[in-house]
Amino acid sequence: MIIDGSEGSLKKFLSDLPPVDQVGAEARAAMLSTRSIKTTSKAWAIDMAISMVDLTTLEGADSFGKVKALCAKAVRPDPTDLTVPSVGAICVYNDMVKIARTELDAIGGKDIPVAAVATAFPSGRASRAVKELDTQDAINAGANEIDMVIDRGAFLSGRLGEVFEEIKIIKELCGDKAHLKVILETGELVTYDNVRKASYLAMLAGADFIKTSTGKVAPAATAPVVLVMLEAVRDYFALTGTKIGVKPAGGIRTTKDAIKQLVLVNETAGPDWLNPSLFRIGASALLNDLLMQRMKLRTGHYASANYVTMD
Amino acid sequence: MSGFEYASAPESKAIANIASSYGLFINGKFVEPKKGKSFTTINPATEELLSKIAYADKLDIDLAVKSARTAFTKVWSKMPAKERGKYLYRIARIMQERAREFAVVETLDNGKPIRESRDTDIPLAAAHFFYHAGWADKLEYAGVGSKPKPVGVVGQIIPWNFPLLMLAWKIAPALAAGNTVVLKPAETTPLTALLFAQVCQQAGLPDGVVNIVTGDGITGAALVNHPDINKIAFTGSTEVGKAIARSISATKKSATLELGGKAANLVFDDAAIDEAVEGIVNGIFFNQGHVCCAGSRLLLQENIADEVLEKLKKRMSLIRVGDPMDKNTDLGAINSKEQLNRIHEISNTGDTEGANRWSPECKLPSKGFWYPPTIFTGVSQSHRIAREEIFGPVLSVLTFRTPAEGIEKANNTMYGLSAGIWSDKGSKVLWAAKQLKAGVIWSNTFNKFDPASPFGGYKESGWGREGGRHGLAGYLTSDAKAAK
Amino acid sequence: MSRIDVNKTYKLFIGGAFPRSESGRVYEIKGANKKFIANPSLASRKDLRDAVVAAKSAHPGWANATAFNRGQILYRIAEIMEGRSEQFVDEICALEGVTNKVAKSQVEAAIDTWVWYSGWCDKLSSVTGSLNQVSGPFYNFTSPESLGVVAIFAESKPSLLGVVRTLAPVLAGGNSAVLIASENYPLPAITLSEALATSDVPSGVVNILTGKSAELAPWVGSHMEIDGVDVAGLSKKQEEELKLVGADNLKRIFRFNLDNHPERILSFMEQKTVWHPIGI
Description:
Chain A contains 13 helices and eight strands. Chain A is an alpha/beta fold. Chain A has one domain (7-297): TIM Barrel. The termini of chain A are far apart. In chain A, 57% of the residues are buried. By secondary structure, chain B is α/β, with parallel strands linked by helices. In chain B, α2 packs antiparallel against α4 (114-133) and α9 crosses α10 (305-316). The A-B interface holds A 18-21, 23-25, 27-28, 34-42, 44-45, 48, 231, 262-263, 266-267, 271, 274 and B 1, 3-9, 115, 119, 270-276, 278-279, 318, 327-328, 424, 444-445.
């Protein structure tokens, strides 16, 4: 055991982590963003990115119709080209889980997981009981993945044990029924030191994935934040032998953005993480841009948005 | 395709209009050398011929110095300072406009990755002109008295590691201060200097203010020994720097010397390890280690040495070695056969003296000059690889137990150009910065350069500074120093 | 019978002590009136070596003293000299053959020189350092630091002021010094060392040798532990020869033509530039 479960041992472990130098981390991320990905490697990267997309809708206006359309898109992102892979998952609020699961199963998307945001997403401001119920409800509705938010207030005021306990409890609820993604909401943690600490805290508490953001707070999945989280999963693997996944979410809208993420993965955590089981991209608009770039590569001329489906 | 292999992403060579031959740039025109001799410059990554270059001997140097003298007395020193400044602004702008062309030519002639010439060398060179342009009409605030005067005609000799950037470090402050120059680029990398001569023409710079003479060490010596030179500015090896100091010992010439280094890069146990690893890599593998201030001696605090080394090796295996024109290349070609031999020679003593060599797996191209990124562990202070400047992608790793021991080892060298400190503790960083005997201290960063930041060494790393107000002062006469 | 004067034995000043030359050699100094004054030591290259060892070991302590503290010590030298000014005046009169009034004004100028440089110690960084506006999230500053051991060949005349105007700036910058007094006018330098010994200057920070510059200059030039040289008292030819051998460790070698100028301090200092990222 790395820690004995007590708040003291957790705090000691987290405070012993090496610090992150902001300027250095940002410089490294910026350098990696200059990688030039062309031709065959671009084609490979686009398909990989599509298969990693957690196709997301998290709006107050979400309806059954909207979610069903999203499911169709998830299974066959480009109805005119069946070589396009399905996306990594569908990500919705918990009252949409059931319809999403049913729809996916009905249209040939049995293998596409449904992820539900939980624990009073996006703020996380609710009682423990509500958060547990929220999670249980989603699992009962057939969610395969739970995207929980951490209690940033508790984290920032130093009540790390509370944050840890909450993740553990949610993880127990997930059991073997659902994978747990833990959203750090890095935009509210502000410093890279906090991102690193929260990443470890979540991993120690049982996260299967660590996720940057809710998408409701800016900045979200910036390259240096993802870099720091990828370093964390890489080093956690070296320490424990367990591979934890990473999910950037928020602000990744273009193919260029997505490929930069893949370069970050490739040169930080390593090629093992270039797999939808260990890396996901939370996005909605991104998918269409990936499809347009894919058309451009295939046909040799620039694509029109009229040829990708708008849902 | 298995996995994420980056397909080749070559920068186009089309933008580089390299002529089949170049003359000397004297008095605003390209002229043939008096004796008609020439030499060639090749692409070190492919060994392909790039161009035939005029070889300047004593007669040509004399012409160039005469043209610089005339331009100095008749034009440049008389011109209103703000007009002088405007020429420098023009040059900066033209360099920015032609940045891509400069980057491609630099990479072809030098072998450095296009990413570095594009993102570092060329933008910084233009920035040096822009920075110094603003000084031209503010010299009385440069800290050398209320009536600063230019030195006169300056002979400038630059190395092959950052050809255009070193040219900018030399020419920009010299011109801003009202001097005229005769500059000799390195034998293996003359092309961007000749391209710069075209920039001077485009900028309408008065004839003779900048003269570019190409050649070898003998050409350089002729420049140093020319009686009508007032100052020598040299960047290169300590050995040649000392020879220049001797050559001018019985003359009135002054000198700025930017010489060798064997910089210590100290990593303390409270450092931000991931960024320190980046800094170590950037410190020694930037520009193939062809950097006088390279962090070539890594000093690790013993209690984190294993952890850092493990991460360093992992990181080193990501270094992409190969075609310098590929935008994804991190480590390019060694600049010349001669330099490659020198790297082999000194590095091989690491093996024979008992240090442990490690390089990541990497395929080196069959043509051209290449050396893999290399580290030696188990190095002690007495090993040659810990004392001599290798000027290649070879890092010597040593350890220390206490901060005081780290500093002692760091300072245990005849050089004093630069040093690195990695620690998250402010007071320790400032303590170490104070103790280290080096002209540039990079704390929690490495190999950063800026026109506003003075650069230069302690001890046998040189005389004077380049960059910033302190560098500019080297091109102005001080009333307190005796006219020798 | 009138009282017989108690004459002073003029010795070297090395590491805070007053030894004779290890060589046992002395040479004769006569006054302007051709009368014998003293037999100062004729320093050898080994005395030079000892002086450099003392200077080298004293350097870190002196360089790391606060600038304010160094300023106070330089001012203290002025105080002590003021109390001994009669002695300096007498020596200058005897050596240089000048009037009491001329000698007195030289002594006053020398004392005032210490005061002037005393005030410089803690202003050097402010006046000559800089905070550099680099393009990036970095704090970047440049400040002067001492060079190390500086050798000084003092001018012959004015015999006291020539010593002080070369020595004071070297000390103000935090260097330790090995001063070679002028061959024919060395006595005020030795008397100054007596003042230095009682004015809180740490042992070894100043070392004073008497003897022949021509004999010592090549050894100074080639000594690898000497970092800088003020060649005020050397001939043009000696300076050139010293520069030739001094190139072996790239000594900083200078001659100045203005009194009391900060350039005299800064020429024997290095500018250090420190970078640090700005971030959270």
